[in-house]
């Protein structure tokens, strides 16, 4: 590949502008760190950290950044389709944008947001001092960051993937997608997928093995339950993606015949593998949101969560069913009536446990004293909007009716109606809810509520018209349409809604700056009159989490202890064992990144040399004698005094 | 460090127990990985295009040798862990070295087998069947290769540092990995080679 080909995308003015803004942004960050002499601080406290709370914060920072990357893609799409025969984007550019919008929003926004919140909250909720494998946790994050960086690099160097986020074959093969775009797809997703798999292993071990004394499985907070089940799905679904992506790479770069149209290849094999991972993936991003809503609704209704056991059971049933529905993504591709019938039934069956959860949330609020805080508003908004998404999901589940809806905007509207009120509202609710725990001050409520209303209203303005357009036959992924179709006005309405959504997200980010400047510091430990253990320790949380590990006898121990005037964190201090920081995960992922980058361009020798760097770090780690360090009793007393004195 | 003497050394600390448990979870993910590769193979096994079929290229003799070597290595690593629990460092190292040598022998035959296929014109690009076969075998072979280096790193540490809570923990986890590769091979032997030879 020549230099000219590699930098070909930059000939587009819009991409050139984006590239320049990235470079300028990078220069500003580097110059800022140098000017304020923060390089040492940044390296020691962030790049080398193994602290689950800081790793969680970094995940969320990347997620917010990617929300804007994916958001700009979305705005461009809506702008392009706002009027008939629009020439803002050409077909190729439009293809690239809807592809990266899907990839970025699911894998680099929703996933890291969920994983960030689980990093911050889970060890606190189960009364642990860190995750089971802190160093592995850092590797997970940096692998994810490497994959994220690689995918974002694609639109400047070599060209973005352009075959849809599902990358169906034969469209994604070298014959029909000759640029390196889909090489980026397979390698970037491979890196971040490995990171996610390690997260899965780490959090299952943490939750199973490191709960506070007395916290039996059925006494765990609901968010912890949802994360346990989510991670089980991760461990069983992500290896399928690993294989699918590896086969894609082999097909595209080594000439194998897995998904080809000749020599025995089977293009539909890709679609099956992709969705065997892809459908459980949907539940990987939705179940944590269910957990967050359960915590928030119980907290702000001031009532015990209704139907605890049925909540747990329904999540277990959802996780099992999530592996049995994948073929509903391609009913129209010609696997007979029997197969379609079976997948129709399993798909509709998922509505049952989901419905159980809905009623449990409603009954939790019944007779409750509800306080309408920002997190609670998201939870309340979620219930009706998500129900629309769920009901249209059952419509799509009917195989025969799906022949009408398939690949129309009706489908697009449906999955935005489940993913936005489900996942996005969920993580935003959790973000507002746990922010004081992370930083020791609240986010401003007025701005928070303004953000919510902008998002909730604009969301419906953006996506409800798409249901109608879809039923009228407007196919998804069309870059333009003629005026005679009559699709113009509703598309314009949708574009106006998208602008409102953008404003809402800007308010949320502005709120960070506003609250950082204006909100009172030294927030108390129990910010919201909460129920679970994370509210028993200080805000912000000291690095060891709990000076004395609390003992638990029942669900919501902290809540009942508070009512009875007991202090569950009282006890004698003992020295605390903590893991050492290490920059190795950062550098190791750097080598991973290089290996994948060279592999994108089939530069195998530099790629193998970079991989040797990865193995070098693994060997060094194996021989390293690192037994961690101890925090002395004096140091704990000092920290506790400082944090308590400020309350 | 708290040492619980009622448990074997590799289980003696909290950190060790977490690592063993975590590795079992990881093996769960590995099972999914190979299950997916097997599924791909079964889907594509009869889609040979213009290339040869399984019964045309499979030869039982080298495969039987491979099976014999790998199964024996699983036995010797078991003996190695047994020696480790008795605190016999020398016996443990001898059994581990035997295991790795057997693994190397396995790998040698597998590489020889691949070269033979390529000489017969059966390459990874020939047909969907061969792509799936070689990816499945190659993934297993890559795991064995990785295991050889891993095993050597552990042997060096045991030689230098003796049998302590850390080294025994690593050796034990490595033995889990090695047994797992053996189990995968039994499936490959039965459902790829034997099944391929019948049809």
Automatic annotation (TrEMBL), chain A:
Functional pathway: Energy metabolism; oxidative phosphorylation
Subcellular location: Cell membrane
SUPFAM superfamilies per the UniProt record, alphabetical: Cytochrome c oxidase subunit I-like (SSF81442)
Keyword line: Cell membrane, Copper, Electron transport, Heme, Hydrogen ion transport, Ion transport, Iron, Membrane, Metal-binding, Oxidoreductase, Respiratory chain, Transmembrane, Transmembrane helix, Transport
Function statement: Catalyzes quinol oxidation with the concomitant reduction of oxygen to water.
Residue stretches making up the Cytochrome oxidase subunit I profile domain: 35-553
Pfam families the UniProt entry points to: COX1 (PF00115)
Protein name: Quinol oxidase subunit 1
Note describing how the cofactor binds: Heme A3. Binds a copper B center.
Catalysis performed (reactions): 2 a quinol + O2 = 2 a quinone + 2 H2O
Entry cofactors: ferriheme a; Cu cation
E.C. number: 1.10.3.-
TrEMBL record, chain B:
Catalytic activity: 2 a quinol + O2 = 2 a quinone + 2 H2O
Keywords linked to the UniProt accession: Cell membrane, Membrane, Oxidoreductase, Transmembrane, Transmembrane helix
UniProt protein name: Quinol oxidase subunit 3
Enzyme class: oxidoreductase
Annotated EC: 1.10.3.-
Localization: Cell membrane
PANTHER family listed in its UniProt record: CYTOCHROME BO(3) UBIQUINOL OXIDASE SUBUNIT 3 (PTHR11403:SF2), CYTOCHROME C OXIDASE SUBUNIT III (PTHR11403)
Task of the protein: Catalyzes quinol oxidation with the concomitant reduction of oxygen to water.
CDD domains reported in the protein's UniProt record: Ubiquinol_oxidase_III
Main localisation: membrane
Species name: Lysinibacillus contaminans
PROSITE patterns: COX3
Family (UniProt): Belongs to the cytochrome c oxidase subunit 3 family.
Transmembrane segments: 21-43, 63-83, 95-117, 137-159, 171-194
Heme-copper oxidase subunit III family profile domain sequence ranges: 1-197
